[in-house]
Each structure stands twice: as C-alpha cells, then as structure tokens.
Amino acid sequence: MIVAGDQQLLKQINRMALVRQLCSEPGLSRAALAEAVGLTKSTVSLLVRELLDEGWLTESELRVTGALGRRATPLQLDGERLALLGADMGIGMARIVATNLLGEVLAEQELPYLDPADTSSCIALVAQGLAELATGAALAGRTVRGIGVGLHGVVDDATGVLHYAPHLGWRNVDVASQLRGHFAGSALAELPLFIQNEANVAALAELEFSGQIGADPLIYLSIGYGVGAGIIVNGRLLTGLYGFAGEVGHTILQQGGPRCSCGRRGCADALIGLQALMDEVYGQPHPSTPEQLEQLFSETEAGDANAARAVEAAGRNLGVLLNNLWVAFDPMCIVIGGAALRLGERFIGPGRGVLHDCASATLLPAPTIRTPHFGDNAIAIGGAAMARHYLMRPFVGHDTARRSQDKPGGDHLPPALAAGFWAWS
Question: Which CATH code of 3.30.420.40, 1.10.10.10, 3.40.47.10, 3.20.20.70 fits the domain covering 82-202+378-418?
C-alpha cells in the first residue's frame, strides 16, 4: 500500500534526480532533463520550479537552438543561495568550512583544542564554530542545507557514534547526540547531520566536488598515524554492514612482520603508518607529538640516511597495499591523502614503482595514482560534500536509518566490534 510518506519520498527522490543530473551535465534544458531522467516534461517543469524557488537551481539566458518553438533555457546548480557546512575533527585541532553547492569555500577556520582528551569540550568547540559560521557575514543571504563531520576513527554512520579514535584516545563517544544538544535552539537544530570516518568523507569530496567525470570506482587512501580508505563504487560510498568498510590499515601485508597496535603482525598500519615510521627511525615506542612528527618530515626532506631508508621501505609496502586495493576493487583512481603526503615522492615513488611492476606482470593498466584536490581542507570540505551527497540521495539516507534497526540487537554491535577489534586506524 502506498502512503503519503512514500509519495513524499518519491517526490524528493525525483527532485534530487534532477539535481544530480545537472551536477554531471550542467546546462540541460527542461526537455533534455526530462529525457535524461525518464520523467514527463510536465513533472520536470513543476519540480524545476520548486528547485529554482528553493535555491538549488538557477537558469541561464535563453539559448538559441535554431529550432522552432520555445527556446531552451539552460539549467545548472545555483552557487549563490545555499550553503553546506563541513568539519574535520582532527588530532589536536578541528577545521571547519562553509561551501556552496559547487564545493567553493565561502569561509573556513581552524579551531585548536584546549584539551584533546576532553571529548565534550572538543565537540562543544566544533558545534560553536559551526553555529558562528552559519550566522556569519560570509553566509549572509544563504540558507544552510546540511552538515557533515569527519572523525579520525571508527564510526557507526547509522548512529553517529565514534567507537574508537586511537590517536585521540576517544572511545564510544556519541558525537551526533552531543552536537545535536549544542545545536538546540540555534539555526542548525533541524538540519540534516551526517557523520563518517575521515577517509570516507575525503573520498566523497573527490566524488562530489573535484569536477572529474569517470573517476568511479575511486579509492581515497588516507595515511596518517594509521591507514584507512574510503571506497566509492557506482556513485555510492561502500560502508559495509556495520559502517566499517575501508579499514585497510589492518590488512596483512607481511606475515610475521612488525607488531601492530591491534596485536597482530604485519598490518599496513605497522608498515606504512607515520607512527610505525617514527618507531622505526627513533626507536620503539616513540611518542607521537606534532613536534616529533615535524622532525621526521624535516629529516626525510634533508636526506637523513636513517629516515630515508625507513621511508623508502614504507613506500614499497605502500605499493603492496596499492596492488591489493587494485585487484580487490579495480578502481579507476586511487587518491593518496593524509599527513604522510609531506614525505613526498620519497614515499609515494617506491609505492608507485611496486604497483607498476605488478601491473606490468599482468599486462593490465594500473589505476591512476594522484593526490587530493583539496589539500589540508580535504576532510572538512569532504564534510560539506557528504552533506550534498546524502541530501541528493534521499533513498540512501532512508536505507541507512533502517539499517541501524536491522543490526543484531538493535543499535548494539557484535562484541568484537564494540570492544574496538576493528577500531585501530
């Protein structure tokens, strides 16, 4: 039986289908849009009028086609009237941004944590920053449509709970509920809020805002203290049953290799991650302070023999991981991001070389390997991209909400997951 709620969802799906089509093919007329998405011209005209009124779309001057009848009016996303908010709750500080629908940054800010171990104060700081951004001069006259937050740990995307962020020391933090509590009574209170792991968020930035067509499947490989990946397949983020897909830092690259924080040996984290590199260069265990990480970058750039040897070895292991991701997902593109980019070609070059050798043996072309389009703001901009991604795919959000109810035991995870078994990146 079809109920009113289903009809409203169907209408929203059709509306956003038009918006997504214009993301990939800006400049279509109403008639061309109707043909592209398979809706009647009258339905498209009604929906386009709503989207124009709400600020999603704008139309250009009439285009002369030479045909008889009414001239075609090109449609495209409107970059002037709506805004999206994104946040990167990183290690030591947060970054927040506001973008338009096209991913152009309207305002940005860095927010150093007063005490990174105090989860409540860090979340309150981000909530306050986002609220001030939404009401600031840069967004005057714009309507904020959604908020996306990237977290450096394992996230249940259906509930917004951060299960473990090892380099922050946070466990089982209900980030979504705390943010909602701080938003109460503000302009952000009723806005859609989306929360994901940072690698997934950065992958969505590349999908939504890079302007590249035909880069799907795409993998965003995030290499910082640990290693994680965001995986895009058929325009969708691959999250897995519990939202933990992409935890590639704990794929085994070397049996019997160095011990990982998870207790096993030879994981990608223990061979590629910056913490493992610092342990190798300076001796285990090596505290991971920002100053000491800067020392590693400086010594690598200066050609220090010990650092260079460790970085090259990590790069070769990176190549093994790149090959494994290639044969597992057959992506068109693997984007390498994260703090490890500071190591430059000394790190990425050996990885690319190993991948090239693997590809040569198969006589198949390897995927494109490149760096992110958005630099240090990749995750914060990815938060805004995540908001756009899910707002334009209402059926995906519908499925995600239902998935949390379908989990064994409701919102509770299997014991191994709840204990942080996969929570090490």
Answer: 3.30.420.40
- Fold adopted by 211-372: Nucleotidyltransferase; domain 5 (3.30.420)
CATH class of residue range 4-77: mainly alpha
Maximum C-alpha span of the chain: 77
What span, in angstroms and rounded, lies between the C-alpha atoms of 65 and 184?
A: 51
Q: Are domains 4-77 and 82-202+378-418 of this chain identical in fold?
A: no
> What is the distance between the alpha carbons of residues 317 and 334, in angstroms, rounded to a whole number?
16
Print pLDDT tens along the chain (425 aa): 444 557 888 999 999 999 999 998 999 999 999 999 999 999 999 999 999 999 999 998 765 555 555 567 899 999 999 999 999 999 889 999 999 999 999 999 999 999 999 999 999 999 999 999 999 999 999 999 999 999 998 888 888 999 988 778 899 999 999 999 999 999 899 999 999 999 999 999 999 998 766 678 999 999 998 899 999 998 889 988 776 788 899 899 999 999 988 888 999 999 999 999 999 998 866 666 778 889 999 999 999 999 999 999 999 999 999 999 999 999 999 999 999 999 999 999 999 999 999 999 998 999 999 999 998 899 999 999 999 999 999 876 544 433 444 444 444 455 444 444 443 43
Are the C-beta atoms of 200 and 237 separated by less than 8 Å?
yes
Return the bridge partners of 109, or none. Answer: 96
Q: Which residues pair with 232 in a beta bridge?
A: 218, 237
